[in-house]
Amino acid sequence: MSLRKGSKVWVPDRDFAWFPAEVLESSNKQLRIQTDSGNKIIVIAPEKIFSRDADEDEHGGVEDMTRLAYLNEPGVLYNILRKYALNDIYVSLYC
Fold first, then answer.
1. Mean pLDDT within 53-79
2. Where are the alpha helices (DSSP H) in the chain?
3. What would the pLDDT profile of 38-52 be if each residue is shown by its tens digit?
């Protein structure tokens, strides 16, 4: 995974599972990132984070999870949260 300055990522958190962040600096062994809220800067190993869609906040989620650029746990959970908040959750009627 190639992460550079400005890359959007998901960072693990004990209390909230995942939170969105942006890479400030990168090297082979560690990344310096800032949370999207701007109140926390963290140094973390690259293998502990996941990439996220750069424009996911602009949309109300995607209909089909396979349309996510990065199909990973935090991305899927965030998409479900967005769809639920908009009361746009769907279920299959074909059983």
1. 77
2. 73-85
3. 888 999 999 999 998
What six digits make up the tokens of 77? 């959970």
Q: Which of 8, 16, 53, 54 is nearest to 33 (CA)?
A: 8
Q: Where are the domains of the chain?
A: 7-51, 56-86
Residue for token digits 């602009």?
A: 58
| Confidence check: pLDDT of 14 > 70 | yes
The CATH architecture to which 7-51 belongs is Roll (2.30)
CA dist., res. 33 & res. 55, Å (int): 18
**Unique residue bearing structure tokens 């090297």:** 27
What is residue 25's DSSP assignment?
A: E
Give pTM, 2 decimals.
0.77
Q: Which two tokens stand for residue 45?
A: 């190993």
